[in-house]
Amino acid sequence: MGFHHAVKIGQNLHCYLWTGQGNNCNTTLLSHVLRGERPHMLVDPGHDRNELGEPCFDSLAQAIAKDGFKIEDIGLVVCTHSHPDHFEAVDALVDRGALLALSHEEYEFLQGQGKMFYSVFSAHLPRAKPYFYLNEGELDLGSGNKLNIKVLLTPGHSPGSICLYLEDEKILLSGDVIFSSSVGRTDFPGGDTSQLCQSIERLSQLDLEYIVPGHNTEAGNIIFGKDDIKENFRMVKLFFSDG
Question: At 44, which CATH number?
Answer without folding.
Answer: 3.60.15.10
